[in-house]
Amino acid sequence: xxxxxxxxxxxxxxxxxxxxxxxxxxxxxxxxxxxxxxxxxxxxxxxxxxxxxxxxxxxxxxxxxxxxxxxxxxxxxxxxxxxxxxxxxxxxxxxxxxxxxxxxxxxxxxxxxxxxxxxxxxxxxxxxxxxxxxxxxxxxxxxxxxxxxxxxxxxxxxxxxxxxxxxxxxxxxxxxxxxxxxxxxxxxxxxxxxxxxxxxxxxxxxxxxxxxxxxxxxxxxxxxxxxxxxxxxxxxxxxxxxxxxxxxxxxxxxxxxxxxxxxxxxxxxxxxxxxxxxxxxxxxxxxxxxxxxxxxxxxxxxxxxxxxxxxxxxxxxxxxxxxxxxxxxxxxxxxxxxxxxxxxxxxxxxxxxxxxxxxxxxxxxxxxxxxxxxxxxxxxxxxxxxxxxxxxxxxxxxx
Length: 399
Ligand SMILES: [Zn+2]
Ligand SMILES: [Zn+2]
Description:
This protein is an alpha/beta fold. The chain folds into two domains: 5-182 and 300-397, Zn peptidases (Aminopeptidase), CATH 3.40.630; 186-298, Alpha-Beta Plaits (2-Layer Sandwich), CATH 3.30.70. The chain contains eleven helices and 16 strands. The strands form four sheets. It has an eight-stranded mixed β-sheet with strand order 1-2-4-3-5-16-6-15, with helices on both faces. Strands 10-12-8-13 form a four-stranded antiparallel β-sheet, with helices on one face. Helix 4 packs across helix 11. The chain is elongated and about 80 Å long. One zinc ion binds next to loops.
């Protein structure tokens, strides 16, 4: 493994910084302390910065030896927010705040990008500009979208943007990147079947919304098997069914809520359209009415093929071709998708290992994302930072 020497020298300090962030997790759009830590480090290394995009976002600006005159620029993005959950770990750097935890490793993502920033600022052995994007609110807040709305790509024009997430279970030293869709679109629906309640012993006097909603749940599944192409991926999960308060009362309404996931907008359009038709027509068939609400949260995360291939080459130069694996797309979602809609780039993965890196006092559960026993693997910091630096140098050196 070809880790950059000066980054390896600072590994201890960066691990300590990561553990400090882990002990002080902040929820979406509240990352003020985290942003302060980031800003203080960047300032210490002589990196000018811009604060406030997307509320708490920080953008560091590192010009190369040409002062950025060539006009080429790329963005490297780390997310900073924690999750609203209570940590099971009791080791020294465990969360100080009940109900808040860095269980997705965004503390580590921030540390890896800071470690890269230090090296880039101290060496400036490239032409062009590297924008270091520290983003708030990845966990459900759409912080990437908010930074873009506040002018991320107009204030800081760049030709490519790259993101990275740690991935538990992959062997340490491995990295992964693939072209095309890597994460799904995430969407929510809320459907209210409006019938006519009454005495449960005299159902013929009303319109019972419950059997209509039950038919609807099953009918939705045929959208996946009969309407979309079999080779296209799609998920419809009805996760909440709410109706009634008594065994002898037919309720007025039955409410269904859940999530839809797809790898393309085309399939999403199809599923939303067919769900609405099925819901409204099933209600009409049973003389009920339908309130159909569908909210699109995150679009699919789609890597541009040339940038994904470029990222793979850089990874291979660091960890060797055998250690760069194909990442199977997952139906989870990621708001880096918004950045990739605006600018070409690639979202990649770095192995977090099996959890044996964790200190004594870990919670005993699996070291998986969003698990209360999770901890980021500090051994990744020099490797991830090396990837960021090599990627930036190589990309900016392209003809
Ligand atoms: Zn997460
Ligand atoms: Zn995450």
